[in-house]
Amino acid sequence: MTLCLLCVLFPSNEVYARFKKVFEEQDGFVMIDATKFSKQTMTKKRKWKLVDNKTAIQILPDTRKTHSDKLINGENFSDKPGEAAVVHYRVKINNPGKYYVWVSALSTGSEDNGVHVGIDGEWPETGKRMQWCDGKKQWTWASKQRTAQNHCGICGGIYLNINEGGEHELMFSMREDGFKMNRIVLSKEYDIMSNKLVEGNISMNLQEYEFFSKWDINVEGDYSVPYYQGNINALAINTVRQPTDKWCAAKQIFSGEEGVYDMSFISLLENDGECYYKVIVDGIEVINFRNPRIFGADIKEYTPYTITVEGVSLKNNSEIMVLFKPDSNKLVPEKDAFAFARARWRDLIIKKK
């Protein structure tokens, strides 16, 4: 990814910012790192700022923390989308249609739990008043629209109709100052984000979001974009759409105590290739291996394969990056060529010694 120049403040109430990153939808799903916005607009009174060691963004200053604090329309509150603190993201849509909008937000009170969403300069009714009530003081995924009848929001009410493929501009604007978010999802399937809906409350315990709560797949650099394969709970590379000679990457910021840890990396064995994997901690390679061949052996495909290293030093806020690359052993025919293994992997387990 190409990094823009540092933010330049313009007196015209606009901030051009940070990244040219384009987040690409695949198979009706795209996850967006909220910190990788392309620009901000309408910043005269409120701005989105990087917080929590640059892992999230928040609308600041936050002057209305409780219901008793003075409400100032257009300054610390806005029921009009696009009026204040607008953050923009570049998104490429390959499969046009209706996309539900999900956001991972952290609310600590009663007046920091609402935002608006729009696209391509438009603010449709189905993007207004995105609301959180559950999950106070913890990161919580939701896709609910506040209504006059239900102030905590109606499930499935927040969505965007994207009728054309190609690049679009996704936008979020302030409803309440103090609002904080770190991840955004556009998904054609509403239930992909939850495994049950009970009386309008969403249980967010899918393995998929346990995975994405740890791993960021939108990594700066010349990497392919992976996808999540839910039926085997693994990250993978689409070797039909992505280059087969290019690395993919995922990263996380370690939030535990400083110390010495054991790391166990779990890849999945594949018949059609022996894929490559690396684990890098703060720029230092700690794991580097290639999956063994199972073609012709009595080993079931997608059997977990674990590599463990001991004595890895980690600091609070250490950056852990996983690199993975596909491979073809040219033993499994596919059309006029050979199939590629997709460098599937499931987890990196970190345990203190």
Q: How are the SSEs ordered, and which strands pair?
A:
Layout: E1 8-10, E2 14-16, E3 22-24, E4 29-33, E5 39-41, E6 47-51, E7 56-60, E8 86-93, E9 97-105, E10 114-119, E11 130-131, E12 140-142, E13 144-145, E14 154-155, E15 159-162, E16 166-174, E17 180-187, E18 197-198, E19 201-202, H1 207-212, E20 227-229, E21 234-236, E22 248-253, E23 259-268, E24 276-281, E25 284-290, E26 304-314, E27 319-325, E28 333-334, E29 337-338, E30 345-352
Parallel strand pairs: 3-8
Antiparallel strand pairs: 1-2, 2-5, 4-17, 5-8, 6-7, 7-17, 8-16, 9-12, 9-15, 9-17, 10-11, 10-16, 13-14, 18-19, 20-21, 22-27, 23-26, 23-30, 24-25, 24-27, 28-29
Can you describe this structure?
This protein is mainly β. The chain folds into 2 domains: 8-204, Jelly Rolls, CATH 2.60.120; 227-352, Jelly Rolls (Sandwich), CATH 2.60.120. It contains 1 helix and 30 strands. The protein has one helix at 207-212, and strands at residues 8-10, 14-16, 22-24, 29-33, 39-41, 47-51, 56-60, 86-93, 97-105, 114-119, 130-131, 140-142, 144-145, 154-155, 159-162, 166-174, 180-187, 197-198, 201-202, 227-229, 234-236, 248-253, 259-268, 276-281, 284-290, 304-314, 319-325, 333-334, 337-338, 345-352. Strands 1, 2, 3, 5, 8, 10, 11 and 16 form an 8-stranded mixed sheet that branches. A hairpin with a 4-residue loop joins β20 (227-229) and β21 (234-236).
What structural class do you assign from the helix and strand content? mainly beta
* Beta-strand content: 35-45%
Structural domain tally: 2
Q: Which fold name fills CATH's third level, the topology of the largest domain? A: Jelly Rolls
Helix amount: under 10%
Give the total of beta strands: 30
Largest sheet: 8 strands, mixed
Work out the radius of gyration. Answer: 22 Å
DSSP summary: helix tally: 1
The appropriate CATH architecture of the largest domain is Sandwich
Shape type:
globular
